[in-house]
Design a protein that fits this description.
Strand order of the largest sheet: 2-3-4-9-10
Oligomer: single chain
Protein name: Peptide deformylase
Number of helices: 4
Number of strands: 11
Shape: globular
Structural class: alpha+beta
EC number: 3.5.1.88
Family: Belongs to the polypeptide deformylase family.
Keywords: Hydrolase, Iron, Metal-binding, Protein biosynthesis
InterPro entries: Peptide_deformylase (IPR023635), Peptide_deformylase_sf (IPR036821)
Order of helices and strands: HEHEEEEEEEEEHHE
Distance between the termini: 49 Å
Length: 216
Amino acid sequence: MAQQDTDQQHTGVLPVDDEGFVIDTEDCEERETAWRERGTSRPITVVGNPVLHKECRDVTDFGDDLQQLVADMFASQRTAEGVGLAANQIGVDLKVFVYDCQDDEGRRHVGVVCNPRLVDLPADKRRLDDNNEGCLSVPTAYAPLARPDYAEVTGQDEKGNAIKVRGTGYFARCLQHETDHLYGYLYIDRLSKRERKDALRQMAENEPRYPVVAND
């Protein structure tokens, strides 16, 4: 997809393509490193923590506190070796997620989305992918979950500019998964009772590879 002509003005943090979607595949290593090196890694909240099970508050202040939160989220994501992280996964009740995720073609995507909303797709774009899904907040557990293999999200970047993000394959799953988090849903909430029970059993039987917040 072609980038907009350089003489076209775009006020967002990332450039956009000719359909208005952010180009989040350029300078990924530099951008992720710059965020992560300013941040402090925090432990991950796990299923059962109340902050994970309710809709988060909208981001309305795009100042220094949000910038530090985003930096901490990138640092936490790297420590946990994740591909996406929502703010409530480090205990913060705000609608923001970060991602560092490859799509099925091997393209790396790095970005920030505040106040995300999934676009309701027409039927011809609803091809389902039923691959395994996991979650940093349900450590060591995996289960197959059917989701559309293409996703579009609207929202704002870390400076408050309106953005659109789209992804295919694994990256589409990431966009849907992280947006779900901010509305109080874990992927295991979309499983059958038997599958959910199995996922929680996997979690109970294994040790997470990163620091987590124990539920009281």
